[in-house]
Amino acid sequence: MAGRSRGPRTVPLPSAEQASALVKQMRGETESNSNYRTKSLKIHGPICAKCGREFDASSLNQLTVHHKDGNHNNNPPDGSNWENLCTHCHEDEHSRGLLGDYLSK
């Protein structure tokens, strides 16, 4: 019979590497943006820019990179948009705006 559907068309799924590359492309991430944490640690050192706490290899996972302008795609090679913050200071930095908005209402 003409025009009769033969069922759904199957499309092969991408590999894990292809899927990861596609997600990065959709997010606007480039190779230069993908590893800014490592770059920030090399530039600024394993120290929280706010409280001054120093981190060693066993506690380095508690140190995060804060984008000063809030744009995670703005990753200049000189690290001028980054500051390393411990998880507590990073949370405080992001909650300040929320608290200010709440109190101004």
What does this entry look like structurally?
This protein has a domain at 35-104: His-Me finger endonuclease fold. The radius of gyration is 21 Å and the shape is extended. The model has no long low-confidence stretch (mean pLDDT 83). The chain has a two-stranded antiparallel sheet. The longest helix is centred in the C-terminal third of the chain and has 18 residues, at 87-104. The chain is of the alpha+beta class and 105 residues long. The chain is built from three helices and two strands. It starts with 15 loop residues before the first helix and ends with a helix.
Short description:
The protein has a domain at 35-104: His-Me finger endonuclease fold. With 105 residues, the chain is α+β, with helices and mostly antiparallel strands.
